Amino acid sequence: MQNMNEQNDVAMLVAGAVIGAALMYLFDPRLGNSRRAMLRDQLMGKTNTMEDLFDYKSQHVSNRAQGAAARVQRTLDELAAQADSMHR
User: Fold this and answer.
1) Are residues 37 and 22 in the same domain?
2) pLDDT in tens, 9-49
3) The total number of structural domains that make up the chain
4) Residue 37: what pLDDT?
5) What is the pLDDT of residue 6?
């Protein structure tokens, strides 16, 4: 049990060091502004890419659903025509 606590302590220490280093990197008085702007631009680019992908996928699903609905409608129309011809 003590070994697990020691591992957790080491993991917390490493996580704290990484977070601290990232904050120092981003809030550096000399280059922090440009680094934050670059990070913001990269995140916005990724967000736009994800939005484009979502739009593409949702259009694809919509097209597939419309195609399936058209096939069902055609089948129903054919069955109705067959039933109509049998009753004449």
Assistant:
1) no
2) 999 999 999 999 999 999 999 999 999 999 999 999 999 99
3) 2
4) 97
5) 87
Are residues 67 and 46 part of one domain? yes
Q: Considering Cα of 24, then 25, then 28, then 34, what sign does the dihedral take?
A: negative
Tokens of 87: 């009753």
* The pair of three-digit structure tokens given for residue 73, joined into one six-digit string: 């409608």
Local structure of 35: helix, strand or coil: helix
* Contacts of residue 26, Cβ cutoff 8 Å, sequence gap at least 6: 32, 35, 36, 39
pTM confidence score: 0.56
The pLDDT value recorded for residue 30 is: 96
Burial class from Cβ neighbours inside 10 Å (0-12, 13-18, 19+) for residue 36 reads middle
Q: Return the ∠ at Cα 82 (arms to 80 and 85), rounded to 5°.
A: 110
